[in-house]
Specification:
Strand order of the largest sheet: 1-2-3
Number of domains: 1
Number of strands: 5
CATH architecture: 2-Layer Sandwich
Distance between the termini: 15 Å
Radius of gyration: 12 Å
Largest sheet: 3 strands, antiparallel
Helix content: 10-25%
CATH topology: NE0471 N-terminal domain-like
Oligomer: single chain
Order of helices and strands: EEEHEEH
């Protein structure tokens, strides 16, 4: 599978984020299931979670504490949901 980069990310509600990828594919992912362990533990706090940003160099969503989620993981979730 080709790896697509995240170009935009927008908070929808709680831990639901809408992503737009470099191929214009768009979809929403509930990121709650990725939180709670290791570097992601502090992101259960919504104030910390809401500090996410798109790192253009990595092509994915990141947080100031160093956490990130691979773009292929996010893309796969969107593709699987639509099939």
């Amino acid at each position: 599978m080709e790896i697509h980069e995240v170009k935009k990310a927008k908070l929808i509600k709680d831990y639901m984020v809408e992503f737009i990828f470099d191929n214009k594919k768009k979809g929403r992912v509930d990121l709650r299931k990725y939180l709670g362990r290791g570097v992601f533990a502090q992101l259960l706090n919504k104030k910390n979670f809401n500090k996410f940003y798109v790192n253009e160099e990595l092509g994915t969503i990141c947080w100031p504490n160093g956490a990130d989620i691979a773009p292929d993981t996010l893309y796969r979730e969107i593709i699987q949901r639509k099939t």
